[in-house]
Write a structure and sequence with these properties.
This protein has about 300 residues and is α/β, with parallel strands linked by helices. Helix content is about 40%, strand content about 25%. The chain contains 11 helices and 13 strands. Strands 5, 6, 7, 8, 11, 12 and 13 form a 7-stranded mixed beta sheet that branches. It has a two-stranded antiparallel ribbon with strand order 1-2. The longest helix has 28 residues.
Protein backbone atom coordinates (compact mmCIF):
# COMPACT_ATOMS: atom_id res chain seq x y z
CA UNK A 1 0.00 0.00 0.00
CA UNK A 2 1.20 3.53 -0.84
CA UNK A 3 0.17 6.58 1.17
CA UNK A 4 -0.48 9.72 -0.79
CA UNK A 5 0.69 11.84 2.12
CA UNK A 6 4.11 10.14 1.81
CA UNK A 7 4.49 11.62 -1.68
CA UNK A 8 3.31 15.05 -0.72
CA UNK A 9 -0.18 14.80 -2.24
CA UNK A 10 -1.93 15.66 1.00
CA UNK A 11 -4.34 12.73 1.38
CA UNK A 12 -4.31 10.28 4.30
CA UNK A 13 -6.15 7.43 2.62
CA UNK A 14 -4.26 4.54 1.10
CA UNK A 15 -4.21 3.45 -2.51
CA UNK A 16 -3.06 0.18 -3.96
CA UNK A 17 0.04 0.09 -6.11
CA UNK A 18 -1.91 -1.91 -8.69
CA UNK A 19 -4.50 0.86 -8.95
CA UNK A 20 -1.76 3.31 -9.96
CA UNK A 21 -0.61 0.93 -12.68
CA UNK A 22 -4.16 0.72 -14.06
CA UNK A 23 -4.63 4.47 -13.83
CA UNK A 24 -1.44 5.21 -15.78
CA UNK A 25 -2.34 2.60 -18.41
CA UNK A 26 -5.73 4.24 -19.01
CA UNK A 27 -4.19 7.72 -19.00
CA UNK A 28 -1.65 6.72 -21.64
CA UNK A 29 -3.98 4.73 -23.90
CA UNK A 30 -7.13 6.83 -23.29
CA UNK A 31 -9.03 3.57 -23.65
CA UNK A 32 -10.16 1.14 -20.95
CA UNK A 33 -10.07 -2.00 -23.09
CA UNK A 34 -6.63 -1.31 -24.55
CA UNK A 35 -5.37 -0.43 -21.06
CA UNK A 36 -6.68 -3.74 -19.72
CA UNK A 37 -4.85 -5.60 -22.49
CA UNK A 38 -1.68 -3.65 -21.69
CA UNK A 39 -1.67 -4.67 -18.02
CA UNK A 40 -3.04 -8.19 -18.68
CA UNK A 41 -6.25 -7.90 -16.72
CA UNK A 42 -9.93 -8.19 -17.61
CA UNK A 43 -11.49 -4.87 -18.55
CA UNK A 44 -14.26 -5.05 -15.88
CA UNK A 45 -11.65 -5.62 -13.16
CA UNK A 46 -9.62 -2.64 -14.36
CA UNK A 47 -12.72 -0.42 -14.42
CA UNK A 48 -13.64 -1.49 -10.89
CA UNK A 49 -10.14 -0.65 -9.59
CA UNK A 50 -10.21 2.78 -11.24
CA UNK A 51 -13.63 3.50 -9.65
CA UNK A 52 -12.26 2.34 -6.27
CA UNK A 53 -9.30 4.67 -6.67
CA UNK A 54 -11.60 7.59 -7.50
CA UNK A 55 -13.70 6.85 -4.41
CA UNK A 56 -10.61 6.81 -2.21
CA UNK A 57 -9.40 10.12 -3.65
CA UNK A 58 -12.84 11.69 -3.61
CA UNK A 59 -12.47 12.90 -7.18
CA UNK A 60 -13.06 11.71 -10.72
CA UNK A 61 -9.87 11.03 -12.63
CA UNK A 62 -11.34 10.65 -16.11
CA UNK A 63 -14.07 12.31 -18.14
CA UNK A 64 -15.99 9.68 -20.05
CA UNK A 65 -17.95 11.36 -22.83
CA UNK A 66 -19.18 9.59 -25.96
CA UNK A 67 -16.34 7.10 -25.86
CA UNK A 68 -13.66 9.73 -25.41
CA UNK A 69 -11.49 9.38 -22.32
CA UNK A 70 -9.76 12.49 -21.02
CA UNK A 71 -8.10 13.35 -17.74
CA UNK A 72 -9.78 15.60 -15.21
CA UNK A 73 -7.78 18.19 -13.29
CA UNK A 74 -7.38 15.63 -10.50
CA UNK A 75 -6.19 13.07 -13.03
CA UNK A 76 -3.68 15.52 -14.51
CA UNK A 77 -2.36 16.22 -10.99
CA UNK A 78 -2.06 12.52 -10.12
CA UNK A 79 -0.46 11.34 -13.37
CA UNK A 80 3.13 12.64 -12.86
CA UNK A 81 3.09 11.44 -9.25
CA UNK A 82 1.86 8.00 -10.25
CA UNK A 83 4.48 7.73 -12.99
CA UNK A 84 7.21 8.68 -10.53
CA UNK A 85 6.05 6.08 -8.01
CA UNK A 86 5.95 3.36 -10.66
CA UNK A 87 9.36 4.37 -12.01
CA UNK A 88 10.90 4.41 -8.52
CA UNK A 89 9.41 1.01 -7.78
CA UNK A 90 10.82 -0.39 -11.01
CA UNK A 91 14.25 1.06 -10.18
CA UNK A 92 14.11 -0.43 -6.68
CA UNK A 93 13.10 -3.82 -8.09
CA UNK A 94 16.01 -3.84 -10.51
CA UNK A 95 18.50 -2.70 -7.85
CA UNK A 96 17.40 -5.43 -5.46
CA UNK A 97 17.50 -7.97 -8.29
CA UNK A 98 21.02 -6.85 -9.19
CA UNK A 99 22.10 -7.33 -5.58
CA UNK A 100 20.34 -10.67 -5.14
CA UNK A 101 21.87 -11.95 -8.36
CA UNK A 102 25.27 -10.57 -7.31
CA UNK A 103 25.52 -8.10 -10.16
CA UNK A 104 26.36 -5.25 -7.80
CA UNK A 105 27.23 -4.63 -4.17
CA UNK A 106 30.39 -4.85 -2.09
CA UNK A 107 32.30 -7.13 0.24
CA UNK A 108 34.42 -5.70 3.05
CA UNK A 109 37.05 -8.31 3.85
CA UNK A 110 39.79 -8.09 6.44
CA UNK A 111 42.89 -10.27 6.33
CA UNK A 112 46.35 -10.47 7.79
CA UNK A 113 49.08 -9.28 5.37
CA UNK A 114 50.47 -12.78 4.98
CA UNK A 115 47.06 -14.04 3.85
CA UNK A 116 46.72 -11.12 1.45
CA UNK A 117 50.00 -12.28 -0.07
CA UNK A 118 49.43 -16.04 0.03
CA UNK A 119 45.80 -17.14 0.07
CA UNK A 120 43.69 -14.28 -1.23
CA UNK A 121 44.96 -13.41 -4.72
CA UNK A 122 43.75 -16.61 -6.37
CA UNK A 123 40.41 -16.64 -4.54
CA UNK A 124 39.70 -12.96 -5.18
CA UNK A 125 40.56 -13.38 -8.85
CA UNK A 126 38.09 -16.25 -9.15
CA UNK A 127 35.43 -14.26 -7.28
CA UNK A 128 35.99 -11.16 -9.43
CA UNK A 129 35.81 -13.21 -12.64
CA UNK A 130 32.46 -14.65 -11.55
CA UNK A 131 31.00 -11.44 -10.06
CA UNK A 132 32.72 -8.47 -11.74
CA UNK A 133 30.11 -6.01 -10.45
CA UNK A 134 30.94 -6.68 -6.78
CA UNK A 135 33.42 -4.23 -5.25
CA UNK A 136 36.06 -5.83 -3.05
CA UNK A 137 37.24 -3.68 -0.15
CA UNK A 138 40.26 -5.25 1.56
CA UNK A 139 41.69 -4.17 4.91
CA UNK A 140 45.02 -5.57 6.09
CA UNK A 141 45.75 -5.90 9.77
CA UNK A 142 46.59 -8.24 12.62
CA UNK A 143 43.93 -10.57 13.98
CA UNK A 144 43.37 -8.34 17.02
CA UNK A 145 42.67 -5.30 14.83
CA UNK A 146 40.44 -7.26 12.48
CA UNK A 147 38.35 -8.65 15.33
CA UNK A 148 37.79 -5.12 16.57
CA UNK A 149 36.74 -3.94 13.10
CA UNK A 150 34.34 -6.86 12.77
CA UNK A 151 32.76 -6.09 16.12
CA UNK A 152 32.04 -2.47 15.20
CA UNK A 153 30.53 -3.45 11.84
CA UNK A 154 33.31 -2.08 9.62
CA UNK A 155 33.94 -5.50 8.00
CA UNK A 156 31.68 -8.24 6.66
CA UNK A 157 34.26 -11.04 6.96
CA UNK A 158 37.79 -11.41 8.26
CA UNK A 159 40.50 -14.01 7.80
CA UNK A 160 42.15 -14.39 11.20
CA UNK A 161 44.68 -16.63 12.91
CA UNK A 162 43.42 -18.88 15.72
CA UNK A 163 43.35 -18.79 18.63
CA UNK A 164 42.02 -15.25 18.69
CA UNK A 165 43.85 -12.88 21.04
CA UNK A 166 40.57 -12.05 22.77
CA UNK A 167 37.93 -14.73 22.04
CA UNK A 168 34.43 -13.29 21.73
CA UNK A 169 31.03 -15.03 21.69
CA UNK A 170 29.88 -12.21 19.41
CA UNK A 171 31.99 -13.72 16.59
CA UNK A 172 31.52 -16.93 14.66
CA UNK A 173 34.68 -18.56 13.29
CA UNK A 174 35.00 -21.35 10.74
CA UNK A 175 38.39 -23.03 10.30
CA UNK A 176 39.70 -22.87 6.74
CA UNK A 177 43.11 -24.52 6.88
CA UNK A 178 46.11 -25.47 8.99
CA UNK A 179 49.26 -24.11 7.41
CA UNK A 180 52.89 -25.08 7.96
CA UNK A 181 55.52 -22.43 8.65
CA UNK A 182 58.91 -22.60 6.97
CA UNK A 183 62.27 -20.84 7.24
CA UNK A 184 63.32 -18.53 4.41
CA UNK A 185 66.86 -17.31 3.88
CA UNK A 186 69.04 -15.77 1.21
CA UNK A 187 70.40 -18.38 -1.25
CA UNK A 188 73.93 -17.14 -0.47
CA UNK A 189 73.53 -17.61 3.30
CA UNK A 190 74.13 -20.98 4.98
CA UNK A 191 70.99 -22.84 6.07
CA UNK A 192 70.56 -22.78 9.87
CA UNK A 193 71.53 -26.20 11.17
CA UNK A 194 72.92 -27.11 7.73
CA UNK A 195 70.36 -29.86 7.16
CA UNK A 196 67.34 -30.55 4.99
CA UNK A 197 65.14 -29.25 7.77
CA UNK A 198 65.58 -26.61 10.46
CA UNK A 199 64.83 -27.15 14.13
CA UNK A 200 63.62 -24.25 16.20
CA UNK A 201 66.72 -24.78 18.37
CA UNK A 202 68.87 -24.15 15.25
CA UNK A 203 67.61 -20.55 15.22
CA UNK A 204 69.48 -19.78 18.44
CA UNK A 205 72.27 -17.39 17.54
CA UNK A 206 70.79 -16.74 14.08
CA UNK A 207 69.93 -13.18 13.11
CA UNK A 208 66.17 -13.06 12.51
CA UNK A 209 64.19 -10.65 10.40
CA UNK A 210 61.14 -10.07 12.53
CA UNK A 211 57.67 -8.69 11.94
CA UNK A 212 56.23 -5.72 13.79
CA UNK A 213 54.53 -5.99 17.18
CA UNK A 214 50.95 -7.25 16.96
CA UNK A 215 51.78 -9.50 14.02
CA UNK A 216 50.56 -13.06 14.61
CA UNK A 217 53.72 -14.60 13.13
CA UNK A 218 55.92 -12.58 15.46
CA UNK A 219 54.13 -13.86 18.55
CA UNK A 220 54.21 -17.46 17.28
CA UNK A 221 57.92 -17.41 16.41
CA UNK A 222 59.02 -15.71 19.63
CA UNK A 223 56.93 -18.13 21.72
CA UNK A 224 58.51 -21.12 19.93
CA UNK A 225 62.04 -19.83 20.55
CA UNK A 226 61.33 -19.21 24.24
CA UNK A 227 59.89 -22.73 24.53
CA UNK A 228 63.32 -23.96 23.39
CA UNK A 229 64.99 -21.89 26.10
CA UNK A 230 66.41 -18.89 24.22
CA UNK A 231 65.50 -15.36 23.22
CA UNK A 232 65.59 -14.73 19.47
CA UNK A 233 68.15 -12.27 18.13
CA UNK A 234 66.69 -9.71 15.72
CA UNK A 235 68.74 -8.28 12.90
CA UNK A 236 65.86 -6.01 11.88
CA UNK A 237 62.29 -5.86 13.10
CA UNK A 238 59.08 -3.94 12.54
CA UNK A 239 58.25 -4.81 8.93
CA UNK A 240 55.19 -6.10 7.11
CA UNK A 241 55.37 -9.27 5.01
CA UNK A 242 56.78 -7.74 1.82
CA UNK A 243 59.42 -5.82 3.77
CA UNK A 244 60.47 -8.91 5.74
CA UNK A 245 60.90 -10.96 2.57
CA UNK A 246 62.88 -8.15 0.98
CA UNK A 247 65.22 -7.92 3.97
CA UNK A 248 65.78 -11.70 3.86
CA UNK A 249 66.61 -11.54 0.13
CA UNK A 250 69.14 -8.82 0.92
CA UNK A 251 70.89 -11.19 3.32
CA UNK A 252 69.99 -9.38 6.56
CA UNK A 253 68.85 -12.57 8.25
CA UNK A 254 66.33 -15.42 8.16
CA UNK A 255 62.61 -15.39 8.84
CA UNK A 256 59.82 -17.81 9.70
CA UNK A 257 56.91 -17.37 7.29
CA UNK A 258 53.86 -19.33 6.09
CA UNK A 259 54.48 -21.95 3.42
CA UNK A 260 51.94 -20.36 1.04
CA UNK A 261 53.76 -17.04 1.19
CA UNK A 262 57.13 -18.70 0.65
CA UNK A 263 55.77 -20.65 -2.31
CA UNK A 264 54.25 -17.59 -3.99
CA UNK A 265 57.07 -15.18 -3.12
CA UNK A 266 59.97 -17.60 -3.10
CA UNK A 267 61.89 -16.04 -5.97
CA UNK A 268 65.29 -15.09 -4.63
CA UNK A 269 64.76 -17.06 -1.42
CA UNK A 270 65.82 -20.45 -0.10
CA UNK A 271 62.88 -22.23 1.56
CA UNK A 272 63.63 -24.84 4.23
CA UNK A 273 60.95 -26.83 6.12
CA UNK A 274 60.92 -26.91 9.89
CA UNK A 275 61.72 -30.27 11.48
CA UNK A 276 58.85 -32.13 13.09
CA UNK A 277 56.72 -31.27 14.93
CA UNK A 278 57.35 -27.94 13.25
CA UNK A 279 55.21 -24.83 13.59
CA UNK A 280 51.72 -24.38 12.25
CA UNK A 281 48.99 -21.82 12.29
CA UNK A 282 45.22 -22.23 11.92
CA UNK A 283 43.42 -19.84 9.59
CA UNK A 284 39.73 -19.15 10.19
CA UNK A 285 37.02 -17.07 8.58
CA UNK A 286 35.18 -14.88 11.10
CA UNK A 287 31.99 -12.85 11.02
CA UNK A 288 29.61 -11.37 13.56
CA UNK A 289 27.26 -13.86 15.19
CA UNK A 290 24.34 -11.44 15.49
CA UNK A 291 24.27 -10.26 11.86
CA UNK A 292 24.28 -12.50 8.80
CA UNK A 293 26.88 -11.41 6.22
CA UNK A 294 25.45 -9.85 3.04
CA UNK A 295 24.72 -12.16 0.12
CA UNK A 296 27.91 -11.23 -1.73
CA UNK A 297 29.98 -11.85 1.40
CA UNK A 298 28.35 -15.24 1.88
CA UNK A 299 29.29 -16.17 -1.68
CA UNK A 300 32.90 -15.15 -1.06
CA UNK A 301 32.81 -17.18 2.15
CA UNK A 302 31.63 -20.22 0.17
CA UNK A 303 34.46 -19.80 -2.36
CA UNK A 304 37.05 -19.48 0.41
CA UNK A 305 35.77 -22.65 2.10
CA UNK A 306 35.89 -24.52 -1.22
CA UNK A 307 39.41 -23.24 -1.92
Amino acid sequence: MIRLDSIGYGYHRCMQFQQLQYFVAVAETRHFTRAADLVHVAQPSLSQQIKALERELGADLFLRARGNITLTDAGEALLPLARRILADADTARHEVLELVQLRSGRVRLGATPSLCTGLLPDVLRAFHDRYPGIRLLIEEGGSHDLVRELARGALDLALVVLPLPTPSPALTTVELLREDLVVVSSPEAPVPGRGRTVRIADLEGERLVMFRHGYDLRELTVAACRAEGFEPDFAVEGGEMDAVLGFVRAGLGVAVVPRMVATKSGRGLRVTPLARPGLHRTIALAHRSDVAPPRAARELQRMLLEH
